[in-house]
């Protein structure tokens, strides 16, 4: 992973923050620290990081609310750091668009490995598709997908997708026109160990539609079939 990758650590406990900062800097990452949620939101607007490590129990704004606000203007990968490990918290974090959820206490080595994995999925999608050859891309109407690079274009514009948005859209692209139930989409887009729910799929479909509109979609290519699931008009 490139040493230029920038990580924003949002953690108010000094001992934990120091451990995380040291572990990440030892791997060559450029790391910035914020102790408050509002401060982190302002910083991400001013100088966007490549990944955000976000504590849930912040003193000013709940980490879930920070994630919700981030998703209003950024597709940056978010990994929650929290002592709260209840299923409902993990489900809520995924519904809000988080990419991973690490419960305290955690191993710094494991945390670095998870950060590296998230960045590996995210950073290649920032490259300019016009500057690269089309080898590996497969076109489906207005869409093109590079499964090895985990990238999707819409009308030749690269979509800034989170991990789960990519896998959900890739599942729909695998069978254009076919109706896939929420259970089928969860099985294909989420890790086997991830706790999820039907409304998680609905939340990610909503964010996908917003990104497609931003990329120039006038008609919604993701069709809702009430009581059945979703299908893609590619």
UniProtKB/TrEMBL annotation:
Cellular component terms (Gene Ontology): cytosol; protein-DNA complex
Stored SUPFAM superfamilies: C-terminal effector domain of the bipartite response regulators, CheY-like
Q: List-wise, which residues carry 4-aspartylphosphate?
A: 55
Single GO molecular-function term?
cis-regulatory region sequence-specific DNA binding
* Cellular compartments annotated: Cytoplasm
DNA-binding interval(s)? 135-234
- Where would I find the OmpR/PhoB-type domain in this sequence? 135-234
Which residues lie in coiled coils?
A: none
SMART domains from the xrefs?
Answer: REC, Trans_reg_C
Q: Name one GO biological process term.
A: positive regulation of DNA-templated transcription
Superkingdom in the source lineage: Bacteria
Domain Response regulatory residue range list? 6-119
Keyword Transcription belongs to the record: yes
Keywords, comma-separated and alphabetical = Cytoplasm, DNA-binding, Phosphoprotein, Transcription, Transcription regulation, Two-component regulatory system
Q: What is this protein called?
A: Two-component system response regulator
């Amino acid at each position: 992973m490139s040493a230029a990758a920038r990580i924003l650590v949002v953690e108010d406990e000094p001992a934990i923050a120091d451990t995380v900062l040291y572990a990440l800097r030892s791997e060559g990452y450029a790391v910035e620290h914020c102790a408050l949620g509002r401060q982190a939101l302002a910083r991400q607007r001013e100088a966007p990081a490549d990944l955000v490590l976000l504590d849930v129990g912040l003193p000013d704004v709940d980490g879930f609310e920070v994630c919700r606000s981030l998703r209003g203007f950024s597709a940056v990968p978010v990994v929650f750091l929290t002592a709260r490990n209840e299923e409902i918290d993990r489900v809520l974090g995924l519904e809000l668009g988080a990419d991973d959820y690490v419960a305290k206490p955690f191993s710094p080595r494991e945390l670095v490995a998870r950060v590296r994995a998230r960045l590996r999925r995210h950073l290649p999608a920032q490259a300019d598709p016009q500057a690269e050859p089309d080898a590996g891309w497969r076109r489906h109407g207005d869409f093109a997908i590079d499964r090895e690079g985990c990238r999707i274009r819409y009308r030749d514009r690269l979509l800034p997708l989170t991990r789960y948005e990519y896998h959900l859209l890739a599942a729909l692209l695998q069978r254009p026109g076919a109706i896939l139930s929420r259970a089928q989409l969860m099985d294909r887009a989420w890790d086997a160990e991830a706790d999820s729910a039907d409304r998680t799929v609905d939340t990610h479909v909503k964010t996908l539609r917003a990104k497609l509109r931003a990329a120039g979609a006038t008609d919604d290519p993701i069709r809702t079939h009430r009581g059945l699931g979703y299908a893609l008009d590619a």
